[in-house]
User: Fold these one by one.
Assistant:
Number 1:
Amino acid sequence: MVFTVQFKKLEFLCSTYVDEISGELDSFF
């Protein structure tokens, strides 16, 4: 149960990080 919650948090952090990277790349090019 705890592992699932941790995984969801990690997944959320990764998606947020990727979104920010994509946004920076969009404004860069």
Number 2:
Amino acid sequence: MREKLNGNPMAQIGIVMVLIVAAFVMLTKGGGGSESEGAATPTEATVSIAGTGASATATGATPGEAVESATEGAGEAAVLESSLSATPIPTAPMPPPVAAAYNSNKTVILAIAGSGELGKELVKSSTEIAARLPATAIFVVPMKQIARYGAITLGVHVQRVPALVVMRPRRLSDGTPQASVSYGFQSAQAIEQGIRDASYNGPEATYDPN
């Protein structure tokens, strides 16, 4: 048997594949047991895409779920990186609806989301909040269209999604676009505060314990 294996590369490959599959099954099912033992500890996985700077970390109930989520995140990051690197310099002007809102002294908000749940939640929350605040204009930016907004996204160095970009009104920026960016999950309170901060034009508050 050993001589047959040594002389048959295909048989060797087959055994290696069987061992890999067996190891994966043991890894994914090894945390089983009775329900009385409690919930399994979530697994964390990090995936990096070779040849790019794209990577993502995710957690899941099983190693398979963690790897799948991390792979999806890394893929979105790679697409974003490719889109940004392909954007010509100097960039094109802001899309007309965005420029019109900015020139009308509105606080412009870009909700940039991928296909994940975090992105959907960011779009939902920021849209609802912007609707009840005065002089705001929100634009939902699909990841594949981010290059169209390069005049803004490159200025704040958007590097991953989901991201929320908030621009100060034109009257507060001396005609030179100014913006801030925040990433990932954000509470409704944090989103609203970020929008209000962008349109604030008063003295800065300082704290003096003495």
